[in-house]
Amino acid sequence: MNAPLIVDGVTTSIRLDGQRHDVVRDISFQVAARETLALVGESGCGKSMTALSIMGLLPAGIASVSAGKIIVDGIDMVAADETVRESVRGNRIGMIFQEPMTSLNPVLPIGFQVGEALMQHQGLSRSAARAKALDLLEHVRIPSAARRLDDYPHQFSGGMRQRVMIALALACGPKVLIADEPTTALDVTIQRQVLALLADLQAREGLAVLLITHNLGVVASVADRVMVMYGGDVVESADVKDFFARPTHPYSVALLAAMPRIDATEGPQPIPGQVPSLDAMPSGCRFQSRCHLRQDVCSTLPPLKPVAGNPGHQVRCWMRGDT
Asked: Which residues contact 26 (CB under 8 A, 6 or more apart)?
């Protein structure tokens, strides 16, 4: 598959108290044009570190990709130098960060911030970039965009700031879009508007979208495929319909049980315990300390294996899969 985004055997390590710890461990996936892959899991499971690895935005001297390849529109972001990575970021790949209020510069007008990417990557003049920024703000349905071009981030609502972030991410026509918790802190109505806008823009622009979220309701409504991460490992990967019809890894089952549902006879069931800290991460299955199916063999890392002979649905568990 000639996918705009290919992640192949990537391991990302971080330095903690003088030792290296893997925060993302041997992760592989591809995202095709007009496809949405959802990356889900609790906080601390490696989702955002995966995104930062792809973007080449890991903090220098603290974290690095220690193995694997990340191919963005034909360019290996791991092998490339920083000059090449800078030309790719914002140009071939865009990212919507978690919190727009902290991601946008509070002392610069919105129009300038959107236009700056166009001047940097496409060499537009200030006036041409301003005109294109206006088009982009109208494209993401900012009301009265021409009047609001010189407004500052604090003058926008949370939903409107998120639309500005989408305009920034799409300014230079990227092939790949990473959306890191794009609906966090938005009310349900605004969430639906933002997700509908993203789906419309994806279909129109042919984007490959990597959606990072902990909200399984969002996954069910917009994703084509889903990958569940825990402790830096991919523990389950499936077509979104297969995942919700037959969640297989104990962690996936626990995530779904913890999700509020109007048709459930019981309330959400919390997952006991918490994600282990980096310096206490087990070498085998990293979910073992919280798993009711734990056996001695779980001290060895299980491989990803098909569920019931379906190569498109894989699970990393000694107790599940191949059945």
From this structure: 9, 10, 11, 67, 68, 233
Burial grade of 198 (CB within 10 A; 0-12, 13-18, 19 or more): buried
DSSP string, 261-316: -TT-SS---PPSS-PPPGGG--SS-TTGGG-TT--GGGGSPPPPEEETTEEEEEE-
Residue-wise pLDDT tens digits, 13-31: 999 888 899 999 999 999 9
Q: What are phi and psi of 12, to 5 degrees?
A: -115, 130
Cα separation of 282 and 299, whole Å?
A: 8
Phi and psi at residue 237, to the nearest 5°: -145, 130
Structural domains of the chain, with CATH: 1-82+208-283 (3.40.50.300)
Prediction pTM value: 0.91
Contacting residues for 292 by C-beta, under 8 A, at least 6 apart: 250
* Cα torsion 141, 143, 144, 150: sign: negative
Helical segments of the chain, H only: 47-55, 82-88, 100-103, 110-122, 126-139, 145-148, 158-170, 188-205, 216-222, 240-245, 250-257
Residue 67 burial (C-beta neighbours within 10 Å; 0-12, 13-18, 19+): middle
Q: Which residue reads 């985004």 in tokens?
A: 5
279: CB partners within 8 A, 6+ apart: 16, 17, 19, 21
Is residue 192 predicted with pLDDT exceeding 60?
yes
